[in-house]
Structures are given as C-alpha cells and as structure tokens.
Amino acid sequence: MDYGYSLYLTGPEVFLSVSGLVLTLIAAWGGRNAGRLCTILAVAALFGASAITASQILGDTSVQGAEAFGGLYRMDAFGGLAKLLIYLASIGCLIVTPRFFAKGSEYRPEYPLLMVFGSVGMGMMVSAVDLMTLYIGLELSSLSSYVLASFMRSDDRSAEAGLKYFVLGALASGILLYGMSLVYGFSGSTSYGSIRAAFDGTLGTGALFGVIFVLAGLAFKISAVPFHMWTPDVYEGAPTPVTTFFATAPKVAAIAMTARIALDAFGNQVPAWQQIVIFAALASIVIGALGAIGQSNVKRLLAYSSINNVGFILIGLAAATTAGVSAMLVYLAIYVAMSLGSFVAVLMMRDANGDQVESIANMAGLSRSNPLLALCLAAMMLSLAGIPPLFGFWGKFVVFQAAVQADLVVLAAIGIAASVIGAFYYLKIVKIMYFDEPANVVVGKSEFSHWAVLGLCALVVSPLGYLLTIPLGMAANRAAQALFFTV
C-alpha cells in the first residue's frame, strides 16, 4: 500500500483535519474572543479543501476513480462533486452565522470547529467504499451535528432540538449497524465491491433484510418518509444558521452516500431496493407537501419543504441509471442554492429589537417594508415550487425526464401531480408578502455578508441560472459515470 498516494487521494480530508487541529489550538489560546478569527480561518480552510477537490476531479483518473488505504476510500468524480457542494454550502452557512449570535454573545470558536470536523466526516461519507469507512464518517458528521443543534444553551428549544436529534440519530445508527452486520454476515465482507459480487443472483431473505435495514438507517439521515419525524422539530428548535447547515451540506452528503451504497454495494440487486426507494420518494413528496400547508412557522414549513424535495431527488435514484444519478446531482446542486437562499432570507428577517422573526403571519406586507428581501425570498419560493423560468424548474424537469427514460412513467406522473400540491404553500408565502396588509414587524437591518450570500443564491435560481445547465450537466454526467464505472 502506497501511503503517500493514499494521503494525496484523501487530500481534502487531511487538509481539513490539520486545519481543524490548528483552529482548536487557536480557540484554546484565544478563548471566546477568537470566534470571528476562527470563522474566517475555517472559511479559508474550506475554500482550500474545495480547491484540492476541484484539482482532483479535473484529473484524467477521476471517472475511473482511485482507491486509497487498501480499498477503504475512493476518490472519483462522484465523490468530488458531492464534496464541492458540501464545502460551498458550509462556507455559505459560516459566512452568515456570526451576526445571528451577536446579540446574545453566545458565539464561540467551537462553532466553526464543529463545522470543519463535520465537513471531514461528510467527505469521508461520500467517498467511502467500505461499510467501516462509511460508519466512521457518518458518526463524525453526526456528533458534530448533535452539538450544533443544541449550541444555544440559553434557549430551551435548541436544547430540545439537540436532544431529539441525538436520541433519534442514535436509533438510526443502531438500525444502520444492524443492517451492516446482516450484510457482512451474508456477504463475508464490508467492501462495496465484494458485497456486490456476493449479492449477484438470488438474494436470500437474511441478506434482503440487511439491505432494508441499511436503507432505513440512511433514510433517517436524508429525512425521507417514514423516517422524517425529527426534521420539523429540529429545524424549528435549532439556531437558524444551524438549520441552514442541516438543510444543505449534511443533506448532500447523506443523499450521495445513499446513492453510492445503493448503486455500488447493492448494484446487482436493483429490483430489491428500487421499490423501497420509489415508496420513500412518493411518500416524501406527498407528506412533505401536505405537512407544510398548515404550518405557521417558516422554519417548520421549510423543513417539510426539505422532505418534499428529498422525494424528488429520490426519483432520480429510483431510476438506477446514469441519467438518473446525473439528474439527482443536478437537482442537488440547485436545491443547495434554493435552500441556502431561503434560510438566509429567514435569517435577515428581524424585528426592531433584533430578534428573529419566524412567524409567517409577521411576514405580511414585506414587499412594502423591504422590497428587495421580499423579491429574493419570492424567487426562492417560486423556484422551490418548480415554476419556470426559475432554475428550480430545470431540476424537476431532468429528474422526471430520467424517470420516464427508465420506464418509470407512473412514478414521474405521480411526482408531477404531487408537485402541484407543494406549489400551494410556496405561493402562499408570496401572497402574504405581496398582497396582505403590512404587519410592520420585519424592520431590522441586515449585514453585507447576508446580502452577498442571498444575492448569489438568487442569481443562481434566476433565469440566468440556465447558463449553468451545460457545465453543471457535464459535471453531473461525469460524476454519474464514475459511480457506474465498476457496475
């Protein structure tokens, strides 16, 4: 084993790990006052990891992939594209975070440290080609997330969110471990390649249960129905910058991890898990849409929106084709921009005392008190609804197109019909902001950093985003080919 080459392949994770250790020392010496400095350095570290990842996936071997540490880790275009989305989403979340904690003086340097180490775990998740590596990366990411959810110790809602996330996350980890043990028992290996070879042919009942338990554990991480129950409570209770993080980077990591294990480890048994994914997709679309209709808190509404969007993404996975995975990655990239922009807009809604405004009723007449913010938020809502000419329409289009090409016409038809339900609550937000009598609650000012992130996201989801269709499609196709290279 060439350890030097393995360290090169794992360069983004090694760089972030070293950066995290350096930041830990700075935090220990600087104390609470080092929070802003650690945030700036964490953003720089994530930019560095993004540059390393970009240089790797532009190489000639990124489609075929290269394995590190004896087949525990694979560097390829699929994992590289997922990492870029993870790192960029984390950067956006860190940029808008300090202002949120400024009033209560609760911002500490541990926050960016947790984000950096969580990114290390997420990078391992999407590049893992062995169940052991997958679980280590998953737990590193999860442990960071549990602490972030309960970061505001003076807020009972934050403590409750952290506890709920921890308890249900532990349950999901137990289900996942049990599934892994069954898979290992019936395949004799934890390597994805060996599992795929062992599961070639008729799948026994015990092995089938292993596949089901693994997918059930992963469904919790992506908040797919019926393992979505934690999402609205955690999204509402956690600090809004943390909710922004949960809705973007970990979502990308969990979906990419699920796609890799389904199509790599269980790639010879597509009929065994395809029905499960189809059910989860349709149930997530319908329940996510219906659950959001009666919400009065915008963060809970966006939580159900997240569940709804996971359903659309899973349609691409259900296709189990190169086009399906490519469409899934395109949707993920657009979803990150839409979700990040939506939560940043929520972050910018503050009353005269500087407190966060989360009630949808208090957003009434926002177009008159803050027309630019209302315009950006309306663009996010309409894009999430998939209404052309906004870029969110393209994400839904390519996913449904991949499903039709895979002869899943009924699935695509139901998905299209159910997306109309989801459009209701997105349009409801727009209606409240533009046509209701002003509540005159959102009057607080926002920082330049918030406007910069929101403006960039609004630019991506606007019709100008269609300029990205060719490069994004090429990158997604290359990533999908890398995932199917060993199939």
Keywords:
487 residues; mainly alpha; two-stranded antiparallel ribbon; 1% strand; globular; quinone binding; cell membrane; transmembrane helix; NAD; NADH dehydrogenase (quinone) (non-electrogenic) activity
For the termini, the CA-CA separation is 24 Å
- Content-based structural category: mainly alpha
Instruction: Give the CA-based shape.
Output: globular
Strand order of the largest sheet: 1-2
Could you tell me the strand content as a percent range?
under 5%
Which regions have little confidence, pLDDT < 50, spanning 5+ residues?
none
Transmembrane segments: 6-30, 37-58, 78-101, 113-138, 165-186, 198-220, 272-294, 301-323, 329-349, 370-388, 408-427, 448-468
Subunit structure: NDH-1 is composed of 14 different subunits. Subunits NuoA, H, J, K, L, M, N constitute the membrane sector of the complex.
GO molecular function: NADH dehydrogenase (quinone) (non-electrogenic) activity; NADH dehydrogenase (ubiquinone) activity; quinone binding
InterPro entries: NADH-Q_OxRdtase_suN/2 (IPR010096), ND/Mrp_TM (IPR001750)
Structure report:
- The protein has one domain (3-485).
- It has helices spanning 3-9, 11-30, 35-57, 77-95, 97-102, 110-127, 131-149, 156-187, 192-198, 205-221, 230-237, 240-246, 249-265, 270-293, 298-319, 322-347, 366-369, 371-384, 392-405, 409-435, 448-461, 469-483; strands spanning 66-68, 73-75.
- With 487 residues, the protein is an all-alpha fold.
- The protein has a two-stranded antiparallel ribbon with strand order 1-2.
- The chain has 22 helices and two strands.
- The longest helix is centred in the middle third of the chain and has 32 residues, at 156-187.
